[in-house]
Each structure stands twice: as C-alpha cells, then as structure tokens.
Amino acid sequence: QVHLVESGGGLVRAGGSLRLSCAASGRTFSGAAQGWFRQAPGKEREFVATISWSDFNRYYADSVKGRFTISRDNAKNTVYLQMNSLKPEDTAVYYCAGRFSNLGSNFYYTGVYDYDYWGQGTQVTVSS
Q: How far apart (Å, rounded) are the C-alpha atoms in residues 60 and 47?
C-alpha cells in the first residue's frame, strides 16, 4: 500500500507563491508517474500537472502553464508543485496522485481515473 501526504497549502494574496509537497510512504514508489490535481467547491476535480518517473517528461494544464512547475526528488519519494503568480481562480483543494506505469519510466498521465493512489488534499486559498 502507498500513502501520499500533501503539505504546503495555505492562504496567499494574488501574485504570491506557494510550494506544495507530496511525500510517498509505504510500498516503494519506484517507477511511479505522479500528478497534481485540484478541486474547487462545486466543481469537478481537474488536472494541473504531471511528471514521469524519469523526470524526462512534464505536462501542464493550459491554465497553469508558465506559472506552475512540477518536480520530483526520487531519493526522497517526494513530488513538488511550485506555484507562482497565483490567482484567485487557483483557489482549490490540491491533491497529489500516483500510479505505477507499465509503459515505461517516461510516461505520464493526465486523467483522474488514470491514477491509483491519492493524498488527502491540501487547501490553497488565493485572495484578491
């Protein structure tokens, strides 16, 4: 079993920055692609960013491209989401997700149903 724990959320003013972390524990997470999703009140969970196990490939939603950066430290079993130039519309609960890829270490996934493991979420609130 894999456990994912997010941290780093909080309240920030528009234009500010936050760095989210997602630490994996339990079964080794070697070979897993990981992603970040978010869910605002009354809305469906949406894709934000994903990264392959190899770190060779990263992919972003258009709404965050150029402002958010996903990265990972496999030695620490941790994935990060650096969020800059935050906007009020970025307000949501942010979730970390992971899955073991059977397609190779360069693959990533963007769909909610592509992922097997989820964290409990961390709240990000951006005030105007």
A: 8
> Which position has the token pair 């059977």?
102
Residue carrying the six token digits 């959320």:
9
Residue with tokens 């979420």: 121
Tens digit of each residue's pLDDT (9 = 90 or more) over 43-57: 999 999 999 999 899
Q: Which phi-psi region, left, alpha or beta, contains residue 114 (left: φ > 0; alpha: ψ -120 to 50)?
A: alpha
Q: CB-based contacts of 28: which residues, under 8 Å, 6+ apart? A: 77
Angle at CA 2, nearest 5°, toward 103 and 23? Answer: 95
Other C-beta atoms within 10 Å of 42: how many?
A: 5
